[in-house]
Amino acid sequence: MQQKDVVIGIDGGGTHTRVIAADIQGNILAHSIRGSASIYRDSSVQMNVQSAIKDVMERSGIEAVRVAGLAAGIAGFDTPEDLEWITPLTAVPGLACPKWHVNDALIAHYGAHLARPGIIAIAGTGSILIAINEEGRYLRNYDFHHYAASAARLLGYEAVFEVLAGHADASDERLVARMLGHWNTATVTELYHLASGGFDADRKVRDRCFGRFAPAVTEEAALGSAAAIRVCNRAVKQIKTGIELLGASFKQHLVPVAFIGSVAGSSYFQEKLREELKNASNKQYTVVTPQLPPAAGAVLYALEQAGLPVTDEVIRRLQPSGALLRQALGHGAQA
Fold first, then answer.
1. Region 262-291: what's the mean pLDDT?
2. Is the pTM of this model over 0.85?
């Protein structure tokens, strides 16, 4: 019988799907990047995910019978009903191994905290906070019907609304100039006309456009734009509330927190979140650097679910995965 000595981890969060194939000792065999796995962001999600899985298997010569398990963290997986569109994503013909589908934030947590207790706050393409406490309880801010409005597109929307509502001053000149350039308009009046027509009828296209403007908002906040600061600080406050909400589930007083995503990882948010958490009301929070990328966290999750050991040596061998995926993304669509 062929030995089952490979697991596949999938990070289907954000604008790209990242896939890692590794052996059960943690050695990275192949990696691949394709388009989004979220049905709310891309109409080709099944092709995106399946082509990435096939790619890592073909490039590393992995036969389907060798795969001990596959774990996929998918953005937009919030209710059991979502499995109707999520399960087909990994239905690669011939790949009959056990498959575990979870929200992408869970595998991000596994990567950030190496399956240990802690909180992650994700703010990038989307926004979610997740805790796994010392008793192993899994809890999301969504479970409280709390939402931290800190996704990239929301920063973009809020910054535009501030300007169009007449809340800009001299400190916002660069922000406004970048805003006009981003939407290819010459004046605020022209931008207002575009906005009053809804910008773009296609919501996915519109959201992507606003999301791409978020780096300008966080950068200008760091440079002193009053409007950008207001927008960012509102989001920071909501993230802090979500962290404290989840922190209340821990018995331990010291709770590690990791920040993930383009917004939460920006210099402005990092600085402000650290400042805010120094004045947290219920726990002492320590900000930690994520140890592994979410795709490697999915590998850990697959190993754990398959009953295979997750040792320090396995984790050490997975460490290069972050650099490999960043390099692959920098070169375009895939590795």
1. 94
2. no
